[in-house]
């Protein structure tokens, strides 16, 4: 929601009020100018797209616990898209009251006409891929935290058409849009954790190397999440820190490569890429700590 005083998009809901007329209003506070404003709840307001620009921190407040599912490299429209696995993920998220999810890029296969690779890798055109993705996630639309683009969807659409299809998708779902990697602060039970996420760029066999680079830049992360190379694993990374009582204690961070929903495609078979099972990862945040697993 845009602030009517300073025109900033950095606004936050601040509860609701019932007027003497009986109408309900949604109250907002502007994080830029600290002004308060309200709108009538039954007014149809055009949803503003929120950018999470480099340097911004997206704040997520949960209850006592929160399970965040990273859905990356979905490749809707690809011939080898694993529909059943993606449907399984949607079902689990829909049934769990404490579940949220984010789209981490390559959500669509998106091979444009006359592109450098063959059209045979997709079985429906890009516009139908977009509509199909929106249809598939409709049951969990209200649980989406944010959308990010990848090399298949964002880069291809932007480089060829100067049109960011993932930005439009974020607008469609009414969620923030990450243009770059960055922090998301997760607060549960009064304890805050830092999730660092990005799509990824390297296709190297050792997925930890790119996560090492990420951890060096975003040094305050508790969880580091990348997609892109379709590797599926979660790995605890332990180190020794000085605790509050001036003694050594163990600090655990997590490295995650988020997997994919693309079965063994022809290009991977041709290049003898390793066979990796389809799936996704879940990050569980509780006051007591973080636990991650593969699905």
3D architecture notes:
This protein is α/β, with parallel strands linked by helices. It folds into two domains: 1-46, no CATH class; 49-294, Metallo-dependent phosphatases (Purple Acid Phosphatase, chain A, domain 2). It contains six helices and 16 strands. The protein has helices spanning 83-95, 126-137, 151-161, 165-173, 208-217, 266-270; strands spanning 11-18, 24-30, 36-40, 51-52, 58-61, 65-71, 99-104, 144-148, 177-178, 182-188, 191-198, 223-226, 232-242, 248-258, 281-286, 289-294. It has a seven-stranded mixed beta sheet with strand order 4-9-8-7-6-15-16, with helices on one face. A six-stranded mixed beta sheet has the order 5-10-11-12-14-13. 35% of the residues are buried. The mean pLDDT is 89.
Features:
295 residues, Purple Acid Phosphatase, chain A, domain 2, 2 domains, 20% helix, alpha/beta, 6 helices
Topology:
Elements: E1 11-18, E2 24-30, E3 36-40, E4 51-52, E5 58-61, E6 65-71, H1 83-95, E7 99-104, H2 126-137, E8 144-148, H3 151-161, H4 165-173, E9 177-178, E10 182-188, E11 191-198, H5 208-217, E12 223-226, E13 232-242, E14 248-258, H6 266-270, E15 281-286, E16 289-294
């Amino acid at each position: 929601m845009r602030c009517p005083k300073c025109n900033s998009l950095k606004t936050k809901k601040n509860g609701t009020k019932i007027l003497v007329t009986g109408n309900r209003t949604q109250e907002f506070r502007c994080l830029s100018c600290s002004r308060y404003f309200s709108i009538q709840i039954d007014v149809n307001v055009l949803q503003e797209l929120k950018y999470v620009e480099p340097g911004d921190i997206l704040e997520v407040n949960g209850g006592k616990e929160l399970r965040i599912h990273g859905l990356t490299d979905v490749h809707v429209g690809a011939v080898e898209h694993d529909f059943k696995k993606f449907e399984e993920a949607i079902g689990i998220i829909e049934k769990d009251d404490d579940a949220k999810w984010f789209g981490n890029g390559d959500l669509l296969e998106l091979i444009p006409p006359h592109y450098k690779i063959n059209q045979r890798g997709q079985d429906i055109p890009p516009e139908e891929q977009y509509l199909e993705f929106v249809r598939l996630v409709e049951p969990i639309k209200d649980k989406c935290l944010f959308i990010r683009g990848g090399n298949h969807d964002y880069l291809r659409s932007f480089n060829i058409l100067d049109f960011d299809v993932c930005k439009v998708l974020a607008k469609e779902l009414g969620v923030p849009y990450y243009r770059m990697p960055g922090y998301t602060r997760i607060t549960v039970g009064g304890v805050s954790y830092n999730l660092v996420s990005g799509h990824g760029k390297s296709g190297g066999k050792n997925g930890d190397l790119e996560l090492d680079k990420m951890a060096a830049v975003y040094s305050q992360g508790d969880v580091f999440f990348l997609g892109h190379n379709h590797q599926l694993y979660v790995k605890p990374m332990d180190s020794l820190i000085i605790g509050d009582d001036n003694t050594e204690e163990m600090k655990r961070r997590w490295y995650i490569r988020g997997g994919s929903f693309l079965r063994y495609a022809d290009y991977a078979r041709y290049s003898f890429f390793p066979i990796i099972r389809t799936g996704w990862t879940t990050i569980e945040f509780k006051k007591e700590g973080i636990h991650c697993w593969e699905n």
